[in-house]
Amino acid sequence: MVHLNMDLIAKSSSCSKNKGNCSLAQYLKKLTHLNFSNKNIEEIDDISACKNLSVIYLYDNHIKRICNLNFAYNLTHLYMQNNNITHIENLGAVCRLSKLYLGGNSIMVVEGLEQLRELKELHLEGQRLPSGEKLLFDPRTLLSLSESLNVLNISNNNIDEIRDLVVLRNLTRFLAANNQLQDVQELEAVCSQWPQLCRMDLSGNSACHQPKYRDRLITVCKSLVDLDGKEINELSRQFLINWKASKDARKKILDERLMAAQMTHPFPEAPTVLTLSRESQDRACANRWREDEIAGCEVFCEYNDNNGDGCLQKSWASELCESCQQSLHATHHAD
Prior knowledge:
The protein is 27% helix and 16% strand. The chain contains nine helices and 17 strands.
């Protein structure tokens, strides 16, 4: 079993190369970067003589616990990805930590980070989770990171919803590829609360295949410049924003007219069916072919072709074409 301790540091090639004429104690005290990645290390022992460490590389080892780092007040970067860590713990004293890399471990709950008020990047991608489990988030940890966190990487963790992450309002980069996200409406609601978000990767989620997925997220994320690895053209974004604003305005008008109509005629009436000849069909309510609108009337257009086959199409009360208006007028007079 390999332990990270003073003896191991003293025997390392970097110590022999960089110590020079100073004593081991002096060398350890001025040491700022410690690199023991891929050294089969299983445990962190007492290395408190390295009081000025700012960066520690311990990735690709067999470490099971984060421990014995309470002395490292100056630590800003900790790389411990691809180990056997199951819990995020014992980091309360490293309050200057800015970047924490814990991807490729066996962590089930994101917790224990309440004291890290300066943490800007948290990387937790690809946890080795039991079958059917997903990565969970402690609300206390999320709240404590809400002011500082800029980058969150939670890709490949079986995550199926992100509503709890809405408090992370200073995110600039969000990586959640290859999860189980399906609800585009939830993504819109959460991402719209991240005004500084500029890069996001949701590739590999089923939500990406929903209608207008990309358009909807670009519209609500005003600062987004890259979505799923594809750059966002500012002209396209502005077009989508204007399109949504116009659509919302039309929907509001239709809703208001529907409300007014319901107040005037509280009891529903049977729809008026207008029979149009084939010759007049081309002039009859082109709006009825638009699939992205919401029906707002009780008027239908019925078209019969030469074979006698008919189809009933909804028209729009607010935008009746001339042919339909004439036919409607004639029908009412006949009654």
